[in-house]
Each structure stands twice: as structure tokens, then as C-alpha cells.
């Protein structure tokens, strides 16, 4: 199975804002970014999964061109709870610092931690492996994509943010039929 993990294109959010699971729009650069990432995908896309958030769903709809889009909440970005849509510098240090030191286990105030994200995106990926699809596109967010890559590579979650997942990037995974073997064929950073 070929799996193309695609991060949404740049959002229309001011730099420095925490927007995890908030539903934000895409920046005006969408068309340009779409044209760049499209070069890393097969001509025909038979199955498209997407986070239901607008910044992913809009890209998925453009990629699907007639193919059904399967929306899945497990592909959403990390939920930052009370921090959503606040400037990072406005989040109280007594809340932010523990999370910065251990984002894997410490939850954002009123939100979730990276372990929670890892488990839900992992449940999605386990189902995807069993689906029998030959080729799929998954449009999601940096956190969910990093969690899936960490799962595939079996790396400690504390190292997940060392994986570059830029706006509009495409990561191609190859899964061997009837085995648990999965490899990363490429990770585009365009």
C-alpha cells in the first residue's frame, strides 16, 4: 500500500498564535502551494482521508476531484484546550513550561497531550493498514503526521518534533502487504 501523508497548506493565522484544533482558514498562497505538492502525488487518487478541519478538508476536496473524501476526527491536530487561538507568549508560564518540558505526557490546559494524539492517530493508521487499499492520500496536520511517522519508525515520541513536516509537505509511506513492515520512501518539504 502506498500512503501519502499531506500536511495542509499555510493557514491564514498570525504567526505566534496557538491554533491546534481550531478551525482556521487557509492563506492566499493556497493555489501556489497546491501546485507544488501535487507534483509529489500519483495522477489518480482513489481514496482520500482527511481531518474535518477546513484547512485540511479544502485541500482534500481539491485533491479528490470526484473521489469520496472520508473525514476522520482522529486526524485532527493536537487539541490545545484553553490555549487555542492565544498568542504563545500570553499562555501562563506555569502552564506552558511543564508542557514544553514533557509535551508527550503533560496536557495543554483543558486539552490533550501528544500521547493522546499518538493513540488516536495510531488507531486510524491501524485501521488504514487493514483496509486493503492499494493507494491512499491522508490530509492532516503536522502533529498527527509526526505521530504516524514516529509509529512507523518506532522512535520515542519525545523526538517526534525533530521530524520536519512543513506546510504542504508530502510524506510517502510504503507498506508491505500482509506484514507490519513500512518504510518512508520520501518526505518532501516544499
Largest sheet: 6 strands, mixed
Secondary structure tally, helices: 5
Rg, Cα atoms, Å: 16 Å
Proportion of strand residues? 15-25%
The SSE string, one letter per element, is EEHEHEEHHEHEE
How does the helix and strand content classify structurally? alpha/beta
Q: Biggest sheet: strands side by side, in what order? A: 4-3-6-1-7-8
Overall geometric form: globular
Helix % is: 25-40%
Distance between the termini: 24 Å
- Please tally the β strands and state the result: 8
Overall residue-averaged pLDDT value? 93
Low-confidence stretches: none
What does this structure look like?
The protein has a 6-stranded mixed beta sheet with strand order 4-3-6-1-7-8, sandwiched between helices. It has 190 residues and is of the alpha/beta class. Helix content is 31%, strand content 18%. It is built from 5 helices and 8 strands; from the N terminus they run ββαβαββααβαββ. It has helices at 30-38, 54-64, 93-101, 114-130, 142-153, and strands at 2-7, 17-18, 48-50, 69-71, 86-87, 135-140, 170-175, 182-187.
